Amino acid sequence: MRDMQTAEAGFQARIDEGVKIEPKDAMPDAYRQTLVRQISQHAHSEIVGQLPEGNWIGRAPTLQRKAILLAKVQDEAGHGLYLYGAAETLGVSREALIEDLLAGKAKYSSIFNYPTLTWADIGAIGWLVDGAAIMNQIPLCRCSYGPYARAMVRICKEESFHQRQGFDLLLALARGSAAQRAMAQDALNRWWWPSLMMFGPPDEQSPHTAQSAAWKIKLVTNDGLRQKFVDQTVPQAEFLGLQVPDPALRWNEARGHYDFGPIAWEEFYQVIRGNGPCNRDRMNARRRAHADGAWVREAAQAHAAKQRARPGAAA
Amino acid sequence: MSGNDLPAPQESAPAPVDDWPLWEVFIRSQHGLAHKHVGSLHAADAAMALANARDVYTRRNEGVSLWVVPSAQITASSPDDKEPLFEPAKDKIFRHPGFYKVPPEVKNL
Ligand SMILES: [Fe+2]
Ligand SMILES: [Fe+2]
Questions:
Q1: Which ligand is nearest to the CA of A76?
Q2: CATH number of domain containing B73
Q3: CA distance A102 to B5
Q4: Residue B69 located in a structural domain
Q5: For B15-54, what is each residue's pLDDT tens digit?
Q6: Is A51 exposed, middle or buried (0-12, 13-18, 19+ CB in 10 A)?
């Protein structure tokens, strides 16, 4: 027991020194398990996050917007892969993680349980949802676990295009007809609060924060990130000529930040518990896609086995 | 494990029966540098590993050449051997040019 405590103190000292932890290094079980949970939830979010946007690929208003949306959704698939890869270095298999997701046992970001009702929602997702994701992910590029930090660096490089294409899409609508402006405003009305919830519950209700902060796998608090997001996004909404749906929102000169109204956390917990507008649809879509792809996976495996069995095949 | 009582790490993920093997991906960028490790992916065979590596890791002109290597074929040094392997180089500062004081009158050395 004493030895275990010494070892954990040594581990913490390495983290404090800024040493990156690598897959084959010894690490406390709790560190490993917390990371597996955090990275796999993040991976699942990238994968499920393709669904609300995929819904509009076939209905994009121009060929260029369609190509952009396709490229963005393809990036998200890649992000899922980088993150599953990082989780696998901790000794879990990708298959087991995906099984957990399909069985409804794994969590993913609650934002993806909201529907994309209009084309403007695609702009709002890029601008707000990817914008919030970037804010979360940039500090993680410095996290203590090497494979996770490296995956985040790749992801962050690709994310800024996601946010910009969303803003660009909304800007086109904001400069369009009255009906297009109304569509953009409606999208902001529906996506604003769920986007603020993406940063997670308030710090005082967030039980694991202190340990995760000590381990450098959470580098900024939920409330700190949320404030930064509001401060950065409100002037962008003003540029678009859109109204942020919060009557309590105002600049606080003394704090140097925007004050904003209370968040309806009951809605957040309802969505997390599976009672959001699209939870069931999202899982059904994932399960169907996985089942529909089974024959492709089997065929590829059979082909590979046949190639290996060929006389003269490389050992 | 020497002087370390934290739980032993697993060498690699347990190979699931139905999952494709893991491959490590290396890319050479335009500028004539060596291939660099960029990540990993699962694929049924080498051809599929190359195709997937192209789709996942080179969507933005990241490279002009790809290598894929089965992860199981890589032998890695152990973190426990870090000291015996890498410490000895540290006290051989005479291997670096800065160790030698060149008189200011001497040029082109
Ligand atoms: Fe992403
Ligand atoms: Fe994104």
A1: 1
A2: 3.10.20.520
A3: 36
A4: yes
A5: 444 679 999 999 999 888 999 999 999 999 999 999 999 9
A6: buried
B104 within a domain of the structure (yes/no): no
Cβ contacts of B18 on chain A, cutoff 8 Å: 95, 297, 301
Tokens standing for B109?
């050395």
Q: Assign 3-class secondary structure to A128-139.
A: HHHHHHHHHHHH
Residue in A24, A93, A301 nearest the CB of B78? A24
Q: Does B8 touch chain A (CB under 8 A)?
A: yes
What pTM did the predictor assign? 0.90
Distance from CA of A55 to the nearest CA of B (A): 22
Would you call B15 helix, strand, or coil by DSSP?
Answer: coil
Contacts of A309 in chain B (CB under 8 A): none
Q: Is residue B47 included in any domain, yes or no?
A: yes
DSSP B41: E
CB contact under 8 A, A91 and B13: yes
Are residues A186 and A178 in contact, defined by beta-carbon separation less than 8 angstroms?
no
How far does the CA of residue B75 sit from the closest CA of chain A (Å)? 12
In a domain, residue B13? The reply is: no
> What spacing in Å lies between the alpha carbon of A76 and ligand 2's midpoint?
6
ipTM above 0.90 for this complex? no
Burial A289-303 (b: 16+ CB within 10 A, else e): eeeeeeeeeeebeee
Q: What is the pLDDT of residues A197-224, one digit of tens each?
A: 999 999 988 877 889 999 999 999 999 9
Kindly determine whether residue A26 and residue B9, on different chains, have CB atoms separated by under 8 Å: yes
Please give the structure tokens belonging to residue B69: 């290597």
